[in-house]
Amino acid sequence: MTRSSTKAFATASGTATGGRGALVGLITLIAALVALTIGAGAASAAGSSFGSKLNKTVQPSNASSPHQCESSPGSKCTWVMGEAYGNPGGEQAPRSGYLRKLKLVAGESGSFRLQIVKTTIDGHTKIKRSGPKIAYQGQSQANYDNDSYNVEKYKTHVKIKAGERLAIKTAATSTLRCSSGGDNTLQHSPPLKKRDGKRIYDETDGCWMLIEGKVR
Questions:
Q1: Alpha-carbon span 89 to 83, nearest angstrom
Q2: What's the burial of 139, exposed, middle or buried (CB within 10 Å: 0-12/13-18/19+)?
Q3: Which of 74, 96, 94, 76 is nearest to 84 (CA)?
Q4: Based on C-alpha coordinates, what's the Rg of the chain?
């Protein structure tokens, strides 16, 4: 009897221990899922950046004076980001939402009208939405002397869809870094309008547009 009871107790004890293990495993799994959900929510709240990668070390080189539209000096054109500085391949919004913040680095003061566009791989562009007018300050001589550059930030609220990109409408801008060649910026002259269909660019520019957006 004693031997039989001991065996029965051992079996029951083993079953109970296995049950507790399964329960602990389930609790761990639930905790992991909750943490993952919270992490995803935090990432969503933080937003996703795209466009050029900007910080205080990014110099608006060779843009201390504004550059004009190549094919129509003195007149406005649309400047479309062809390649994002420091972030090649990151020109397009990674997801749909609202453009909540715009960052830029400029050589000197100026202004532009923000545009949201869709550009095909062969350079045809169509405007999707117009945003606010942005007036920026640029750099002081101290910024250049200290090699630390002013990154300006502006709140926006413009609808944007995944795959669309940033553009600006202006006659001249210093939101540029000009130290290379290639099709870093596409210019459309006259500027793109909502009633237009897809239009191929008129000129290309080797300067990068120093503009970064954050979508939420």
A1: 7
A2: buried
A3: 94
A4: 27
pLDDT digit string (tens) for 29-80? 454 444 444 444 434 445 799 999 999 999 999 999 999 999 999 999 999 9
How many distinct helices (H) and strands (E) make up the chain?
A: 2, 15
Residue 85 contacts residue 112 (beta carbons within 8 Å): no
Question: What pLDDT digit, counting tens, does each position of 128-142 carry?
Answer: 999 999 999 999 999
Contact 97, 87 (CB under 8 A): no
Q: Return the biggest CA–CA distance within the chain.
A: 105
For residue 96, how far is the Cα from the chain centroid?
A: 12
Helix H or strand E encompassing 108: strand 108-119
pTM: 0.78
